[in-house]
Design brief:
This protein has 187 residues and is mostly helical. It is built from seven helices and three strands. It has a domain of 127 residues: Alpha-Beta Complex (DNA Primase, Chain A). The longest helix has 34 residues. The mean pLDDT is 85. The structure holds zinc ion. Zinc ion binds next to loops.
């Protein structure tokens, strides 16, 4: 079993899962600044989005039940559309706000330490089953989709130029950026 699955499904003596998006927000995001500090998933359904490329004027970040993993919760921003689990969240917060680069499984180990979860023998860092493998790949793709969209868009523009269907006189960086933003290609 992956460390990241183990820590998320770990239950304490009361059947409570200590590693979850809702508690994580209170414990490790609220203290970052006063904007985050004014919110809690325990008082509101939405909190400010923590993704730095989303200048969230309203609190757009919510959470949903994880359909694939009953008992888990995933975050979902109703503004920028990004979603993920608490392990992705920890890796992101560490990278963006603490300058620490953690792999997914290292982020999971970190969470185990933070929430006093004893790790057991036989946990692995790489997917063992086909399902785990596919899930990991899908996660990697969704993590990259916001990185490569501008590149993809440039490629598309270049193709249009080659096909000669684009009036280059009308095109400048602002137009490209505006169009890409409308199409959600450029975050
Ligand atoms: Zn967002």
């Amino acid at each position: 079993m992956l460390v990241s699955d183990y820590v998320q499904d770990y239950q304490d003596a009361n059947g409570y899962r200590p590693v979850n998006v809702i508690d994580y927000y209170d414990d490790y995001i609220r203290p970052i600044n006063s904007t985050f500090g004014r919110y809690s998933f325990k008082e509101q359904n939405r909190v400010p989005c923590w993704f730095v490329d989303h200048d969230d004027k309203t609190a757009s970040m919510g959470y949903l039940d994880d359909n694939k993993h009953p008992g888990r919760t995933v975050y979902h921003c109703f503004g920028c559309g990004k979603a993920g689990d608490v392990v992705q969240l920890h890796a992101y917060i560490q990278k963006e706000y603490k300058n620490r680069y953690l792999s997914r499984e290292d982020a999971a180990r970190d969470l185990a330490k933070l929430y006093n979860i004893p790790l057991v023998e036989g946990l692995s860092d790489t997917p063992e089953s086909f399902d785990e493998y596919i899930e990991e790949k899908l996660r990697q793709i969704s993590a990259f989709e916001h990185v490569y969209t501008r590149v993809d868009f440039d490629k598309q523009i270049r193709r249009l130029k080659e096909l000669d269907v684009l009036d280059l006189g009308l095109l400048n960086d602002e137009v490209i950026k505006a169009t890409a933003t409308i199409k959600h290609l450029y975050a």
